[in-house]
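Page 42, continued from yesterday. The earlier attempt failed because a stray header line got pasted into the input along with the sequence. Redoing it now with the clean sequence only.
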Amino acid sequence: MVDFWAQWCGPCLLMNKAVSSLAEDYVDDVVVVKVDVSLSAKLSKCYAVKGLPTVIVFKEGSETVRKSGSLTRQQLVELVQ
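This time it went through. Structure tokens are written below.
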């Protein structure tokens, strides 16, 4: 799961705790990566990230789901299951 976010993005900051919690609880099953769009503009452009936060879930290298906007921990869990 890749979380595209920025330090200046209020909804992104609100979602950080949920993303960290999911990463801890699913450490054996899910790789969680956070990408700061301010520092990784090329990567953000490559994945056509238009809004923040954006979460993209990959399975075996292929994008399976993409959601933009702030998500709850439960919504994040549902994405990765």
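Notes: The chain has a mean pLDDT of 97.
Reminder to self: strip header lines before submitting.
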